[in-house]
Amino acid sequence: MISSSHRLVVPVSAASPIDPPLPDGRTLVVRGSLQRDLLRLGIVPCAVVTLALTGWFTHIRLNTLEAAFDAEGEAVARQVAAMSDLSLYAGDLPALQNVANAALRGGQVTRVEISNNAGIYVTAGPKAPPLAQLRMFTAPVTLREASRASAFSPAGSTAAGEAPIGLVQTFRDTTSYTHERTRSLMAGIGVGLIALLAAWAWVRHTARTVTRPLRRISRTVAALEAGQFDARCDLVTTDTQAADIEAGRPIGTPRARHELATLAHDINRLADRLQRNRQRSEDKVREATAVALQRMAEAEQAALSRARFLAAASHDLRQPLHAMGLFIDGLLPTASAAQRPAVLRLQEGTAFMGVLLDDLLEISRLDAQVLTPSITGVSLAALFDQLDAQHAAGAAESQVRLRWKDQGLAVRTDAALLLRIVGNLVSNAIRHTPAEGAVLVAARRRGSAVRIEVRDNGVGIAPIHQARIFEEFYQVANAERDRRQGFGLGLAICTRIAALLGTRIELCSALQAGSTFSLELPRADPREVPPPAPEAVAPAPLAGLRCLVVDDDPAILDGSRALLQQWGCLVECVASGAEALARMGEAGARFDVVLCDLQLAGDEDGMGVIDATRQLQPDALAVLVSGATGPEVLQRLRQRGVMLLTKPVAPAKLRALLSTRRAGQIA
Question: Residues 6 or more apart from 106 whose CB is under 8 A from it?
Answer without folding.
Answer: 76
